[in-house]
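re: ur question from yesterday

yeah so i grabbed the chain u mentioned. its 467 aa long if i counted rite. heres the sequnce exactly as i have it in my notes:
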Amino acid sequence: MTTTPALEVRTLAPEQQLGQFVTDFQGEEIPPEVRQVVRSVIRTIFGTMVAGADQDGIAELRSYLLRQGGVPEARSIIFGDHLPAVNAALFNGTMARALDYCDLMVPGLHLGSSVIPAALAAAELKGPCTGAEFETAVLVGLEVGASLNLTEEQFDGFDPTGVVGVFAATASAARLLELSEEETINALGLAFNRSAGSFQSNTDASLAVRLIQGFAASNAIQCVQLAQLGFTGPENFLAGRFGYAHLWGRDQVEAEDLVAGLGTEWKIINDFFKKYPCCGLAQGPTDLAFRSIRALDITADDIEAIDLYLPEFAFNLIGQRFEPGSNPRVNAQFSAQYCIVNAIVRGESRLADFEPTAVAELVDHPLHERVRVHHDPMISGHSATRFLLRTFAGEIWAEFLPIGPGYPGNPLTEAEHAGGFQDCLDYAPYPLEPSQQETLEAAILDIRSVADINEVINALMSQHTPE
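ran it thru and got these structure tokens back, copy pasting raw so excuse formatting
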């Protein structure tokens, strides 16, 4: 386990320990492997914001926010609209999640798309903000979120992003805006009252999924600004009778355990990054599809049958027979069947392969009828997958993958991280100039050397947007 020398803890109250960590942690103490995770989160979300700029609902949300007007405090990424910070965070957070290519933690907590948009808005509110300050604030937010994460059974259908993401984003914004420990605790207590969201949004393939991400970032900015004005939140939001440990933890977790090791034991190490632009639980099936055709040197025409076996949660989420429905991109991303067919037929899995037109091209492909997905009660790992392929020639290829690519225990390579970022830049509907891409790449490699984070934000503005 990655550890860092402990901060002096002045009080036993878990809420105060949380507030102290947010305000007092020193960025120089970040272990190298933890800093690498932060760097990967920043790169991932910069990429997904740029790539998601014309997805469903984004133009409508932008138009709505522009009509609202308000004090110009922060900018929308890509478009450069000057908006109130709460609205910039809402827009950028929604855009970051629009392609569902962002980082996450089991059982579905999307931290980066909550924290980075809030941190960017807070950085512009702050004024001059160094890369080192930005990196530390991002880390603080990510670690608060990772610490408050719960199990699949405890969430029981609530969306971890909506429940936890707002705490993470609030912590990051509070750090950047230099709230006192008392103000930070109040902001987090206010955030507790904005903690919400349901996986029904995902099940129904609704645009609410991306809005929940924006809500987390936007609510964080609002909670921080209200705390600055003197509004108080419940001081016992973690350990109280009706606090987080009781309501969300279902009395199965102690508030003290949630904050144990803050700043010394790094839970953000368990963050997960996608190798392919589809549901996290479809990463393993996609990877095994590639492995199978490469191992046997075959094409789709050679395959008689594929049987995919998944644990219960994964089967319920991605095991359905593929139907494009009214939202073909999302339905394809959350279909193991489509992800396998796409990988085998096209020999790749890129953002462009989930475009509605690209999805339509594969709807009637005969391989769909030969891919069968099963629930296997003997498989218990969250991302575990068993794959069996048979060819018409009688060849059999079988493999069990205990951990999907990108999950803790099976991390992506640096080249795979860079490849995902480049896919986002290549897919961007409103492209960045080569010089902007170079600025971003340099900043990602050494964010602490950036004198003013506005240099990076400027590099995220396209010169090719519609009026």
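noticed a couple things. The chain has two domains: 14-273+421-459, 280-401. also The chain has 21 helices and six strands.
anyway ttyl
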